[in-house]
Design goal:
CATH topology: Purple Acid Phosphatase, chain A, domain 2
Shape: globular
Distance between the termini: 64 Å
Radius of gyration: 22 Å
Largest sheet: 6 strands, mixed
Number of domains: 1
CATH superfamily: Metallo-dependent phosphatases
Length: about 375
């Protein structure tokens, strides 16, 4: 008896279960976890930048901390929602060097099992110009799209890395499955700019929200077919990632529309798809965090989550917003459970690099938020 007692004590100290009922299985386990953020680029003309950030047009300190903390949360994938470089040029030496710096910042994550998925933003694919009336314009350019493809294409979609990290590869993936030229005003090849795939019974679609010929538009024709096909395959949940928002967050009364709401017809067509397929849309562009159910008052349930506070200058200037979360560097961690339940946790830290804290926790498949 004495030996059995000692053996039991040793097993207990080693962590062995004391009975068959000690280890209770999780009733609704997490089947997939992903993180998402956007907008880490800096303005090279901004005051007070370090020599490094001036050279590479990056908020290196913020991006490095976000990457470290995201990796600690152990997501399967990390979607970066555009504006990772300053861009706005066709100078390939400059573009290639900016892309290389950003990729170097995230390379360690990929090597340690987090699959990085980039989303094109306006800084990557547009050029600045002037209209015939002399007004400032930003217009997508084919040379910029080609530079994106040549710098980011190998990340979209690295099936070998997925298999090494997760023991399985994404399905329903093809580099040729893209919005066709001529639909929705698109004039150029969208390979590796818009793309989609399935994994773990979930569907993920990335859209280029500034295609040549279709600035500030979602490719709704292609997306409608894509989401319907995923539903036919049995996708349990659908997640869409783009740079520009469908609904601008008006944190004060001076904010003007700057997403799909510049073109209400496209905005409404896009959001009708989000509602039809019970999808969630993650985006950036506004350098801020904000989640909303835009059509909740009309019985809608789909969510838009802006996570554009990855290091670019804060959207809300001091004193312009009563919400303290509007001036926090932040990112989202999303957990999808076997039941289809989706939990969003947004973490962040302030401009003084204080402690990281939870900004908000939401059930995206739960009650309607007004």
């Amino acid at each position: 008896m004495k030996r059995l007692t000692v053996l039991s004590l040793v097993l207990c100290l080693l962590g062995a279960p004391r009975s068959a009922t000690a280890a209770t299985p999780t009733p609704d386990p997490v089947i997939f976890r992903f993180a998402t953020v956007g907008d880490s680029r800096n303005d090279p003309e901004a005051e007070g930048l370090s020599g490094q950030d001036h050279r590479w047009a990056q908020n290196t300190r913020v991006l490095a901390r976000i990457c470290q903390e995201v990796e600690a949360q152990k997501p399967h994938a990390f979607f970066f929602n555009g504006d990772m470089i300053y861009g706005y040029t066709t100078n390939r030496q400059k573009l290639d060097s900016e892309y290389a710096f950003w990729r170097g910042m995230l390379a360690g994550m990929g090597e340690r099992g987090v699959c990085v998925l980039p989303v094109p933003g306006n800084h990557e694919v547009q050029l600045k110009g002037k209209s015939t009336a002399g007004e400032a314009t930003k217009t997508a350019d084919q040379a910029c799209e080609i530079a994106w493809r040549e710098n980011m294409g190998d990340l979209i979609l690295d099936t070998n890395r997925w298999f090494q990290a997760h023991g399985a590869v994404p399905t329903a993936w093809s580099v040729e499955h893209v919005p066709p030229i001529g639909t929705d005003g698109i004039k150029t090849d969208q390979r590796q700019l818009s793309y989609s795939f399935d994994f773990a019974g979930l569907h993920f679609a990335v859209i280029n929200t500034d295609a040549v010929g279709a600035d500030s538009h979602a490719p709704v024709t292609w997306l409608a077919h894509d989401l319907a096909a995923a539903q036919q395959r049995g996708a349990q949940r659908q997640f869409i990632f783009g740079h520009k928002m469908a609904y601008t967050y008006h944190y004060d009364d001076k904010v003007k529309p700057k997403g799909f709401d510049v073109f209400p017809e496209n905005q409404q067509a896009f959001w009708a798809l989000m509602e039809k397929f019970h999808a969630t849309y993650f985006c950036g562009h506004e350098h801020i965090y904000h989640s909303m159910q835009p059509t909740a008052k009309d019985g809608g349930h789909a969510w838009q989550v802006i996570v554009g506070a990855g290091g670019s200058p804060f959207e809300a200037k001091p004193g312009t917003s009563p919400n303290p979360n509007d001036r926090q560097y932040s990112w989202a961690n999303v957990k999808v459970h076997r039941s289809g339940r989706v939990v969003l946790e947004v973490s962040g830290f302030d401009e003084h690099f204080g402690p990281t804290h939870l900004l908000e926790r939401l059930e995206l498949s739960g009650p309607v938020k007004h």
